[in-house]
Amino acid sequence: MKQMKRTLAVMLFAGLALSACGSDGQVEQLNQQGNAAFANQDYAAATTAYEQALAASSATTENSVNAEVAYNLANTHYRQEEYEQAQAAMQAALPQADAALTAQGHYNIGNALYSSEQYEGAVEAYKEALRINPADADAKHNLELALSKLQQNEDQQNQDQQNQEQQNQDQQNQ
Description:
By secondary structure, the chain is an all-alpha fold. It is built from eight helices and no strands.
């Protein structure tokens, strides 16, 4: 989990380092305002700026800009532990994103699902990130963590079931 937190921070800042380069200056300005607020850990202000940027997007705004803004919005939700909103925003970014942002998006979806203890979904998200970027060591590591959690849950369920069966048997014997 320690590795996951470090990796998430790296991925968040990598996403913020992308610069908006679309023709819509208002979207670019709002995205930059969101980036500045995010850097200052003012996630509520960052969320507002990114949401305004998405609302200001027009048909002339480049898809890559919209994808970046949605990606940034997802990261602010993640930092506020709003995992469902983070996942939804990241899903919105994916259809418009380039391959690198798509891989990062799936990775971050995996992190949001892992944080929500939805390990099966996290496994699938990490696998998708690895399909796009097979060399992503962090996605491999987090996939192993998620698979381990899945195994632990299965083991616990099996133990609980055995305990219940033993209790039922003991009650029948009395």
